Amino acid sequence: MISGLITIAGCNQDAKKSAAPVATVVEKKPALTDPFRFHKLIEVSPGQDFDILSWGRGSVTVGSFMILHSDSSGKKYTTTTGDLNGTIVDVYNSDMDLDGNPEILIQAKATDTANYATIYAFEFNGSKASKLDFPKLTKSQRKGYQGNDNFYIKEGKFMREFPVYDGDGKDAKPTGQKRVLEYGLRSNSFTVKQLSKDSTEVSTTKTASTTSTRTSSSDKNTTSTKKSKKHTSEKKHKKKKRRHPSSDDEADNN
Q1: Residue 168 lies in a domain
Q2: Region for residue 242 given its phi and psi (left: phi exceeds 0; alpha: psi -120 to 50; beta: otherwise)
Q3: Which domain CATH number covers 50?
Q4: Strands 103-109, 117-125: pairing kind
Q5: CA 143 to each of CA 108, 168, 171, 176, 208: distance values in angstroms, whole numbers, following the listed order
Q6: What is the total count of domains within the chain?
Q7: Confidence of residue 60 (pLDDT cuts 50, 70, 90)
Q8: Quick count: other Cβ atoms within 10 Å of Cβ 163?
């Protein structure tokens, strides 16, 4: 009986040793083949899908993009295309004007050293795609801009932030500040609001304030000096006006 138990225990140990470990299955995205370079699927709602792709042969800096809209519930399929300068970094979906029509925003990065950003924007109303003109940075917004943009969706708005540099070209140095812009949509036109305060404007304000304070202090010192000179002049004038005895006084004394 004891030998039988020993035999059973040995079999159980052999079974444990022979059992192969359970392998973890990791699903891999299918690799893109030429001429395609980028792909992202955005599901706006059940049955409403957008496949965004970039493609082109013979160059990695230029090409085209495609937005494939699949309306599986309505059995409608449309394609929107456009020329692409640079490479696609990411794609965003929003409804900034809250009209129920989704907006697809494609972020592309130019191939220059500054890594400037380009946005291709479209609003979809059913099977119709309307191109939206994304606003360029104004002169004040472009001050200290060296690229390296970060885009994201926050509370239904399209956000953009980038580091601010001091100087131009390769000699530009980061200031540690970030410029933050908020984009909205009204009547198919973008609105822009700057949420951050620029360090350059703050510095200019402080300098102006300091200059004003110094000028005021200088004016006070000048006024005080003028008063002092006037007081000294009055003293000298009084001394000069000291009364001398007349001849009649001398006669009376005699």
Answers
A1: yes
A2: beta
A3: 2.40.128.460
A4: antiparallel
A5: 21, 10, 15, 14, 20
A6: 1
A7: confident
A8: 17
